[in-house]
Specification:
The complex is a heterodimer of chains A (255) and B (458). With 255 residues, chain A is an all-alpha fold. Chain A is built from 15 helices and no strands. In chain A, 67% of the residues lie in helices and 0% in strands. Chain B has 458 residues and is α+β, with helices and mostly antiparallel strands. Chain B has 19 helices and ten strands. The chains are: A mainly alpha (255), B alpha+beta (458).
C-alpha cells in the first residue's frame, strides 16, 4: 500500500516460475507431487478465508489476503516437512492481523479456529498450541525477512474500474480477485496486473467487452491473458476441494 | 548477534534494552534495541511490528534507517543507524544559538522526512522534537515509528485519537476525531517550527483541556466559519470566543515569510492545513537567508535525561582508545567514543553515572576541548536513537540534572526548576512539563492498542 510498488519490498517477492518449480525439494523427494503440494496450499488458504469469514468482521478480507500472501511467500523458501502448513497458516493469520492494524488476541484467534475446524470440511485439521503459534509467527517473520507490507490489488481495481467506466463489473471483478488468492499468481505478477486480469475475467463472465479499454493501456497484454487463463483454469480445478483427511494424509508423507 | 560487538547499555525501554554496538567487519557503530518476547502471550508486540514494517519500507535520508532485524534466542533485535543527538536537546541547550538560516535548514529536513512518510501513506503520529535525531554531521532524521500507521485504504475504519504527545496534538484529535490524515503530522510539525523559533514549547498544556485553551489563546477559537464541522466532533467543547492575536506578538524576531508558513501549518481546520510537499515549496524556503548546509549547523549538545545512560567518565581511557575506522566519514565522531565504550570495563562505566562539572571541564581542559565535547555528545545522547516509543515521551519530559549541562554556560539550567525560573526571568512563562512514569505510560500504550484495533472494520 505504499506509493511506489516497484521500489517496495513487495516487488522483491515477485518470482519467476522457475522459483516455484525449485520450491519444496525435500517434500517432493519424500513423495509429494507439485499438484499435491498445491492442493494442500489451496486447502489451507481456503481454511484461512473461512476463518476470516466466520470471525464476525474481526478479520477482514484484506487481512486474510495478506495472510495468504505471507503463507505463499513462506513456502517459497521453507518446506512442509520442516514447518507444518496446518500450523503455519494460523500463524500467518495472527501476524497479518497485527500488520494490518487489527490485532486479534491469541485466545480469540484460537476460538475462531476451533469454531471453524470442529465442523464441516476442516474437522480433521489439528490446531497449533499457543507456543507453536508464537514460534511459527517468529519463523514466518524471519523467513519473510521482516518485510510485511503487502500491496493490495483492490485499490488498483477500484481505480481501473472508474477509469474504464465499468463500475458494473465491480462486484464480479472483486469476487474474482478474492478468489485469486487461492492461486500462486500473486507471487508471479504485480498487483495492478492482477487487477487488470481480474477485470478481464469478470468481463468474460458477464459477457461485456473491455477490449477497447485494455488496448488503451500500455501494459503487456500477453501477461494479462496468461493470468486470466490461469485464473479460469484454477477455478475449474478447484471446484472439488480436498478434504481435511486427505490433507492430513498428504502431510503424513513428509512428516 | 555474532556480527556485532556489544557495547554499553544505553537505556531501558518498556519492551527491552538498548545497546550501542559495533559491526565487527565494517566497524559501523549502531544502536541495537533488544525486544524481549520471552513470555509474551501475544507474540511480537504491535509497537515493534509497526516500527519494523514501516522502517523496512521507508528509505529516505531524512528517516532513521533500520539496518537489520534478527531474532536471537527469544529476543528480537532491531539494529538502527547510530545518531548522536536530537532536536529537543538542541532547542533546550541555551548555549547553542540557532540562527534563522539554521531554523530553515532544520525545517527543510523535517518536512522532507514527513514528505517521504506521507508519500508512502504513512502517518507518523508522534512528531515532536525528540523524535528528530541529529547526526554529528548535522543531518536530521525522523525516528520512532511505534505509533505510526498506514492510511488511505478505503476499508481503514476509524483511527484512535490517542496519539501524539499532548503539546503536539492537533485540535481535531483533542476533540476526539477518529477520521484524520497527514494534516495531524503537519500540526505537530508547525509546533516544532514554533519551538525552534521560540526555544520553548509553544502550547505546553498540562491537561487536554488546558492544551486546547493554550492553542485557542494563541490562534483564536474555532468557529463553524473558520473550521466547518468542528462543533460536531465527538468531544467538542465550547470555549469563550477569543479572536486570534497576531502571530507577530509571540514571534517578534521571525521573518514575515516564516510566520506565513507557520500560520498555514497550524490552521485550525485540518483541511486547510498546508501539506508537507506544499510547505517545502513555500516562499519561505526560497527567500533569503538560504538554509544552512547541514555540516555547518550548530553542533548538538549531549542528551542525558535517561538516568541509565552513561556519561563520559574516565576520559583518559577514552582519549587513549584508538579511533575505529568507519566507512562513512560522518560516523567518525561517534566511532571514537564507540570504540572507547567498547573497551570500558564495568567498573569505569558504573562510575560514569555521576559526572560532575569538575569532571567534564577537566576532560575538556586536559586536551582538545572540542573532542571532549564530542565525546559527551556521542555518549550521552545515543539512547534516543533507538529508545522504544514507550519510553520516549517520559525521557523527553523529564528534566533531570544531567551531565550534558555541566562545564558549559548551560550549567546554570541543570534542573527543570532552574530552567523555568530562568525562562520567567526573561519573560517566558513555561508550565511544568508533564511527567509520565513507566507504569502509567504502559497503561496508556495498552489503551492505544486496544483502541485502534476494535474500532477498525466495524
Amino acid at each position: 500500500m505504499g506509493s511506489n510498488f516497484w521500489k517496495s519490498e513487495h516487488s522483491n517477492f515477485l518470482v519467476h516460475r522457475e522459483r516455484l518449480i525449485e520450491a519444496h525439494k525435500k517434500d517432493r523427494e519424500r513423495g509429494l507431487t507439485y499438484d499435491q503440494i498445491e492442493e494442500v496450499k489451496v486447502f489451507i488458504v481456503l481454511y484461512l478465508e473461512d476463518v476470516a469469514k466466520n470471525s464476525q468482521n474481526l478479520i477482514r478480507q484484506r487481512v486474510a489476503a495478506a495472510a495468504c500472501m505471507y503463507f505463499r511467500r513462506f513456502y517459497l523458501k521453507e518446506e512442509f516437512c520442516d514447518y507444518d502448513p496446518r500450523f503455519v497458516g494460523p500463524a500467518c493469520l495472527f501476524l497479518a492481523c497485527k500488520a494490518e492494524e487489527s490485532q486479534v488476541q491469541a485466545k480469540v484467534l484460537f476460538q475462531m479456529l476451533r469454531k471453524v475446524s470442529t465442523t464441516g470440511k476442516y474437522h480433521a485439521l489439528p490446531l497449533p498450541d499457543s507456543a507453536q503459534l508464537l514460534d511459527l509467527e517468529m519463523a514466518v517473520l524471519e523467513s519473510l525477512e521482516f518485510n510485511l507490507i503487502v500491496y493490495s490489488p483492490y485499490r488498483d481495481l477500484v481505480i481501473f474500474l472508474e477509469d474504464a467506466q465499468m463500475t458494473d463489473l465491480a462486484e464480479c471483478a472483486w469476487a474474482v480477485l478474492n478468489d485469486s488468492y487461492r492461486t500462486q499468481l500473486g507471487l508471479l505478477h504485480s498487483p495492478y496486473m492482477m487487477a487488470i486480469a481480474c477485470m478481464h475475467v469478470a468481463s468474460m463472465v458477464l459477457g461485456r467487452s473491455i477490449q477497447k479499454w485494455l488496448e488503451s493501456l500500455t501494459c503487456d497484454m500477453d501477461e494479462v491473458l496468461e493470468i486470466a487463463q490461469e485464473l479460469l483454469r484454477c477455478f475449474r480445478q478447484q471446484k472439488n476441494c480436498m478434504s481435511s483427511e486427505a490433507c492430513n494424509r498428504y502431510l503424513e508423507f513428509v512428516m | 548477534m555474532e556480527k556485532y560487538e556489544k557495547g554499553e547499555k544505553l537505556g531501558q525501554g518498556q519492551f527491552g534494552v538498548v545497546y550501542k554496538a559495533r559491526h565487527k567487519e565494517t566497524g559501523q557503530i549502531v544502536a541495537i534495541k533488544k525486544i524481549h518476547l520471552g513470555k509474551a502471550k501475544e507474540g511480537i508486540n504491535m509497537t515493534a511490528l509497526r516500527e519494523i514494517k514501516i522502517l523496512r519500507e521507508l528509505e529516505s535520508p531524512y528517516v532513521v534507517r533500520l539496518l537489520d532485524v534478527f531474532p536471537h534466542k527469544r529476543n528480537l533485535s532491531l539494529v538502527y543507524e547510530f545518531l548522536d543527538s536530537d532536536l529537543e536537546c538542541l532547542i533546550r541547550d541555551r548555549a547553542t544559538i540557532i540562527s534563522a538560516a539554521d531554523v530553515k535548514s532544520y525545517m527543510q529536513m523535517l518536512l522532507k522526512g514527513l514528505v517521504s512518510c506521507h508519500k508512502h501513506w504513512i502517518l507518523h503520529r508522534d512528531i515532536k522534537p525528540n523524535n528528530f535525531l541529529i547526526s554529528i554531521a548535522g543531518e536530521m532524521k525522523l525516528a520512532d515509528f511505534g505509533l505510526a500507521r498506514m492510511f488511505g485504504h478505503p476499508e481503514d475504519g476509524r483511527f484512535t485519537a490517542q496519539v501524539f504527545t499532548r503539546w503536539y496534538r492537533p485540535p481535531e484529535l483533542l476533540f476526539g476525531s477518529s477520521c484524520y490524515g497527514p494534516a495531524v503530522d503537519m500540526w505537530a510539525a508547525g509546533c516544532v517550527f514554533a519551538e525552534l523559533l521560540l526555544r520553548r514549547a509553544w502550547f505546553p498544556g498540562d491537561s487536554d483541556l488546558d492544551q486546547l485553551g493554550k492553542i485557542f489563546q494563541g490562534l483564536g477559537t474555532p468557529t463553524e466559519a473558520n473550521w466547518p464541522g468542528c462543533t460536531s466532533l465527538p468531544q467538542y467543547v465550547d470555549f469563550q470566543p477569543t479572536p486570534a492575536p497576531p502571530l507577530r506578538n509571540t514571534f517578534r524576531q521571525a521573518s514575515q515569510d516564516a510566520l506565513a508558513l507557520l500560520a498555514q501549518m497550524v490552521a485550525l481546520d485540518p483541511s486547510r492545513r498546508i501539506t508537507a510537499e506544499d510547505a517545502l515549496s513555500h516562499q519561505y524556503f526560497r527567500n533569503a537567508p538560504q538554509p544552512t548546509p547541514p555540516a555547518q549547523l550548530p553542533k548538538p549538545p549531549v542528551r542525558a535525561h535517561n538516568p541509565l545512560k552513561l556519561g563520559p567518565r574516565g576520559s583518559s581511557i577514552l582519549q587513549a582508545a584508538p579511533a575505529v575506522h568507519t566507512g562513512p566519514g560522518r560516523l567518525n565522531g561517534s566511532s571514537i567514543s564507540g570504540a572507547a565504550a567498547l573497551h570500558l570495563g564495568p567498573d569505569s562505566s558504573a562510575a560514569q553515572n555521576g559526572t560532575t562539572p569538575a569532571d567534564s571541564s577537566a576532560a575538556g581542559a586536559s586536551t582538545d576541548g572540542f573532542a571532549a565535547k564530542r565525546q559527551r555528545m556521542a555518549d550521552g545522547s545515543v539512547a534516543r536513537n533507538v529508545e522504544s516509543s514507550e519510553d520516549a515521551p517520559s525521557a523527553g519530559m523529564q528534566r533531570e540534572p544531567s551531565p550534558n549541562n555541566t562545564g558549559g554556560p548551560a550549567s546554570q539550567f541543570d534542573s527543570r526548576e532552574d530552567e523555568r525560573r530562568a525562562l520567567s526571568d526573561i519573560g517566558f512563562e513555561a508550565g511544568p512539563r508533564p511527567i509520565l512514569d513507566g507504569e502509567e505510560l504502559g497503561k496508556l500504550r495498552k489503551r492505544k492498542l486496544d483502541w485502534d484495533a476494535p474500532l477498525n472494520g466495524r
